[in-house]
Amino acid sequence: MSIKKNVNKNSEPLIKMSKIVKRYFEGKENELEILHGIDLNIYRGEFIAIVGESGSGKSTLMNIIGALDRPSSGEYFLNSVNVGNANDQELSIIRNQRIGFIFQNFDLIGKINAIKNVELSMLYAGINRHECTARAKVLLNRVGMSDRIKHLPNELSGGQKQRIAIARAMANNPDILLADEPTGALDSQTSQTVIDIFHKLNEEDGMTIVLITHNMTLAEECDRIFELYDGNIIKERKGNITNEHLG
């Protein structure tokens, strides 16, 4: 099955970064500049990869995209909202409602089961529990985990935990999924299962996905690849994406 993706590059970018610089210890003798003026546009419905070796600045860039940190200078717009001008409360809302985070170590809460892990961010957003439960069940089914909703994280495999984390990231219908080395703790077969879920969400639901990875094999499955080196994007190219995973 082949699905034609609808990515409109004539529209305003969903993520628009201009001349993003990030420095630490500003004004001190040990001032360190990590990002040196990043320009990055990502459009709604894209599945893109940001790749780079350790020390390239990709974690710093990820933190800024995710509104976990602020740039030292430059502008960052997410869905036309100037993230750089947001106060702490507004940043918290952006992180909770506009960005779905998926991390290498899953970050599930060990004392509550799968469905409650997925419900939690919706409850924080003020959604009533009945609606939270109904949506959590739909999302867990979407990632193939409807038979594990009552399981605690320590009763699940790594791949199952990551699928729960993906469902949780989707809970508040975010603008983007931001996945930081989401397959780093998984074997190759399980990694491909996780990436296939990303493809499904991207191609069938139109979800915009930003994958941070050092794994070039996985990056090649994305629409576009941005290569980061020493705090600069040194290359942008298309991936070798196919639709065979949907066959």
Task: Give a structural overview.
The protein has 247 residues and is α/β, with parallel strands linked by helices. The protein has one domain: P-loop containing nucleotide triphosphate hydrolases (Rossmann fold). It has 7 helices and 10 strands. The protein has helices at 58-65, 88-98, 114-124, 129-142, 158-169, 188-205, 216-219; strands at residues 15-24, 32-42, 47-51, 73-78, 81-82, 99-103, 176-180, 208-213, 224-229, 232-238. Strands 6-7-8-3-9-10 form a 6-stranded mixed beta sheet, with helices on both faces. A 4-stranded antiparallel beta sheet has the order 2-1-4-5, with helices on one face. Helix 3 (114-124) crosses helix 4 (129-142). The protein is globular.
Q: Concise description?
A:
This protein is of the alpha/beta class and 247 residues long. The chain has 7 helices and 10 strands.
Layout of strands and helices, then pairs:
Elements: E1 15-24, E2 32-42, E3 47-51, H1 58-65, E4 73-78, E5 81-82, H2 88-98, E6 99-103, H3 114-124, H4 129-142, H5 158-169, E7 176-180, H6 188-205, E8 208-213, H7 216-219, E9 224-229, E10 232-238
Parallel strand pairs: 3-8, 3-9, 6-7, 7-8
Antiparallel strand pairs: 1-2, 1-4, 4-5, 9-10
Helix pairs in contact: 3-4, 3-5, 4-5, 5-6
